[in-house]
Design a protein that fits this description.
Helix 2 links the parallel strand 3 and strand 4. The two termini are 20 Å apart. Helix content is 36%, strand content 17%. It is globular, with a radius of gyration of 22 Å. The chain has ten helices and ten strands.
Length: 334
């Protein structure tokens, strides 16, 4: 993020929190928690409403606090830096609240192997209880993280006597498995605070959870691949409108540019066949319980071909009942 989220005393996001120190923030009470059985055989214990749970984790300095504040504003009960072993207890307390705490968000970071093992055990416990949970992972490039820590003159929580990059590398290795299991990965390298909040709002503002949410992102290969992409599409097999003088100033949102792109041999056929492929992939994601997918559509500069194709693919997905957000990462960057 270009506007860095800081904690008390100007510390980077997550660095200000001390292990074991949990701070709870409550938004407006909600009454739409998922009603399921606890699975406990306690005789006269009635059914309770188990809260919906979101776990927010990721790299220190990548925006965990910003993501948490966004959920708080949306009415979630937010707990900062809760020890993982206490997450099931927090969910159980929410279940006893008679629907007053229907959605809980827990912010966790991983400072050591024991901490990670506790988190893994807690997640297994939640799965055994039938708790609906999602994991949001905040990612960022090493360069962006170094810049953020240096801007506030604070050390990385894991760097010890080494450099900031040493702490980042250690944390990235500890979080590797958690990142791989995350339902939603958000790369904040090029995002400011407001853009990250917009992404979180787009994913969590709805009153009802859709079966699948898709982000279709256009990008330019010369600016690098999006690290949070699940699928990558290359549009450089089509002629580049950049070399048409009258089209060069415009983007793929322009009707003339889009018409030029889709009048090229193979463009419409590619759209039809890839949309059909996405239909099959989306069905598989639903079966596997994956709720979020990011489809990155690239061309050279992320201005013409990728933008036009992203818009068409997003429209096809929406027509299939997939809630879709379109992001043009590099449009206007030139």
């Amino acid at each position: 993020m270009t506007e860095h989220e800081t904690g008390p005393a100007g510390r980077p996001d997550g660095a200000a929190q001390q292990a074991g120190g949990a701070v709870a923030r409550a938004g407006a009470p909600q009454d739409n928690g998922a009603q399921v059985k606890t699975g406990k055989e306690n005789g006269g214990v009635p059914e309770v409403g188990i809260p919906e749970l979101v776990i927010i984790s990721g790299m220190s300095g990548a925006g965990r606090s910003t993501a948490a504040k966004c959920l708080e504003d949306l009415g979630w009960f937010v707990v900062d830096n809760l020890p993982p072993a206490l997450i099931p207890t927090m969910v159980e307390l929410g279940a006893r609240s008679q629907g007053n705490v229907a959605r809980i968000a827990v912010v966790v970071d991983v400072r050591g192997r024991r901490f990670f093992d506790n988190l893994r055990e807690s997640l297994a416990d939640l799965d055994a209880r039938g708790v609906t949970r999602r994991t949001v992972f905040l990612e960022s490039s090493d360069e962006a993280l170094v810049r953020r820590f240096e801007s506030v003159r604070r050390p990385h929580p894991l760097q010890g006597d080494g450099r900031i990059v040493d702490g980042i590398a250690a944390e990235r290795e500890l979080l590797r498995e958690l990142r791989g299991d995350a339902d939603l990965v958000i790369d904040t390298s090029g995002l400011n605070v407001h853009e990250l909040r917009a992404k979180m709002h787009a994913q969590f503002a709805g009153e009802e959870e859709p079966e699948l949410r898709a982000t279709v992102m256009s990008f330019g290969f010369k600016y690098g691949l999006p690290v949070d992409a699940d699928l990558v599409v290359d549009m450089r097999f089509l002629p580049n409108p950049h070399w048409i003088p009258e089209l060069r100033p415009y983007t793929g949102l322009n009707e003339e540019v889009a018409s030029y792109v889709f009048n090229q041999p193979g463009a419409k056929e590619f759209l039809d066949r890839y949309a059909e492929l996405l239909r099959m992939v989306a069905a598989g994601y639903r079966r596997e319980g994956k709720r979020y997918v990011t489809i990155a559509v690239g061309c050279t500069g992320g201005k013409h071909r990728s933008v036009a194709m992203s818009e068409k693919l997003a429209a096809r997905l929406a027509a299939e009942g997939v809630e879709t957000v379109v992001v043009h990462r590099d449009m206007g960057r030139e």
